[in-house]
Specification:
Length: 79
Amino acid sequence: MTTSRSTLILAQLFISGSMSFLMTGIFAAVPLGFASGWAATWMHHWIAAWPVAFVLSLIVGPLCFKASFLVMRSADRLR
């Protein structure tokens, strides 16, 4: 199965959005607990984090795919 470039970019949007959403939620809850203002702090941090996560995923994603390919190819050779 080949994946189109637009599908990969859309997947990176979903992945970076969900990961940044969950990570900022966790890291907002650690110091604040679920106190008043927690959700607003979370959303503020998430809005700032998502674009950064998306751009970084576009850079790191291809490197991780290459690294995974190399590891799997090496593992196949060892079998």
